[in-house]
Amino acid sequence: MRDQPYRRNPLLRMSYSLIAPLYDLVIERPMRESRKNSLAALPTHAQRQVLISGAGTGLDLPLLPALHRYTALDFNPAMLAHAVPRGKHLEVDFVLGDSMDLPFADAQFDHVVLHLIVAVVPEPQRCLSEAARVLKPGGTIILFDKFLHPEQRAPLRRLFNGLTRRFATRMDVVFEEVLRAAPELQVLSDKPVMANGWFRGIVLQKPQEPTRRQ
Q1: Can you name the residues that pair with 91 across neighbouring β-strands?
Q2: Is the dihedral of CA 94, 99, 105, 111 positive or negative?
Q3: Rounded CA gap, 209 and 214, in Å?
Q4: How distant, in Å, are the alpha carbons of 80, 84, 87, 114, 140 from that of 67?
Q5: How far is the C-alpha of 15 from the C-alpha of 29, rounded, in Å?
């Protein structure tokens, strides 16, 4: 049996099953434009294989260009059930699986989308390193999430993190620390998006020839 790190947090699994019907009411409208802007980083000139890792209820799906082949993965069956109708206009496979232990071969996808998942999973570094593993050389990882900056104090976020990380999301994730788990990735762009820069839109690329940052 594959190692599935998300199973170590049964409260997180249960909470997302419970909030699946309400998730869209809270998340969809205020983040729609930011999602759309982030997904504009996908190419529109040729068909590619795209992984949506942590697809949730499928809020990204209506915003995706129809020419690509998609795989939408999430650890929660209730979330995926909400996502399926949103993918009717796309060529998409829905997969029940773990973003921290992807059930795919190395270098399988041209692009990986990580929207609001890296700061949710218990092990953000593992989530990013798995995305890098299944990404083809030359491909990109498109992130939209909330991240602290290095040495940013954010005392209230860190205070509440002990509670929120158990049933919803982490509030203490520093992107630059997560990036160390995938040293082959290069930052193409990093832009503040929402909440005074707490949410960021980031595009990473896996070089054709692997390199490591010094």
Answers
A1: 69
A2: positive
A3: 16
A4: 22, 18, 13, 19, 17
A5: 21
CATH superfamily of the 5-205 domain? Vaccinia Virus protein VP39 (3.40.50.150)
Instruction: Check: pTM over 0.85? Answer yes or no.
Output: no
Cα dihedral sign, 40-182-170-6: positive
User: CA-based diameter of the chain, in Å?
Assistant: 46
pLDDT tens column, 178-201: 999 999 999 999 999 987 878 999
Give the C-alpha separation, 153 to 150, whole Å: 9
Model confidence pLDDT, tens digit, residues 121-151: 889 999 999 999 999 999 999 999 999 888 7
Distance CA 157, CA 146 (A): 11
